[in-house]
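Box 3.1 A note on notation
Throughout this textbook, protein chains are presented in two layers. The first layer is the amino acid sequence; the second is a token string describing backbone geometry. Keep the layers aligned when reading.
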Amino acid sequence: MTRPLLSKTRRAGSALAVLPLAAVLFLAPAWAGDAAPARPAPLATASVASEGEAGRSAYDGVVEAVRQTVIAAQVPGAIVALEVKAGDRVRAGQVLARLDARAAEQTAAAGAAQVRAARAGLDAATREYERQRQLFEKNYISQAALDRAEAQYKSAQAEAAAQLASAGAARTQSGFYVVKAPYSGVVADVAVVLGDMAMPGRPLLTVYDPSALRVTAAIPQSVAARMAPGAAPEVELPGAAGGRVHPAGWQLLPTVDPATHTLELRLDLPAGLGGAAPGQFARAWVPVAGNAKRLFVPARAVLRRAELVAVYVVGTDGKPLLRQVRLGGAEAERVEVLSGLSAGERVALDPQAAARVR
């Protein structure tokens, strides 16, 4: 009766002995995979391309008006009329603003009345002098009487001239209460509103002449010394019609800024050039003796985050490092790099993938 029980016990023991080995064999592949994780794919990179351009270097500049005037009042007074607004085109002599001139007008009227009184006195003195001269010729009066009449006449003549000059000054003073455009142009800014108090020297309006614009750029002293003789700089206006243009004239100021050691380059823009306005960004291309190199990277390699413009530079160890750059113009699927990179360096084509590499 005991043999069947022993057989069942042996079969159960054999099953228990086989179960741990099966479990080990089942878990082995998962454990082996954790010990050897897959390596990430290498980053796709591109080399910084270098191309030569016949000795030209680019420098940032700004468009400014050759004639730009900040108009202020010469006399104090409340502003009672503003005839223009920012952006309006004005003619030379056009009224821009009017100040309260009631007191000045009363002074001018008083001066005109004094002139009329002085002229009446001069007429009376003139007639009296003529009568005394005729009487003296007939020996009816003495020389002393004639001299007195002549003195009164000259005094009245001087008084009339003084009153006339004073009245002219009063009229000129009253004209200061009308602000007029000094030349034909465009109103760039109106710094006051109706009712403000105008004071001598306080800016009221800004007017500029759109027919005469120029680009100013700061050129390093070392570059100015190597400017190619006989070659004229060029101007690049992003967004303006024509792209690069040849200036109508240019001037390199002889003084050097002691803080930045740069010279100011002025490039006169051609008249009637569309898309140019004071304050606009521009770029001056300066001819420099020697071969200048332009650097290019693929446009997709550039990372833009708010004010940050950068690329991931991949070093010899394969690790990408973020580096800020300054870009120039775009050409097809690549963009020019003005500073921040050197020729031959490698940049990551996928900035998002490069950011995940640790």
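The radius of gyration is 44 Å. The first helix runs from residue 3 to 35.
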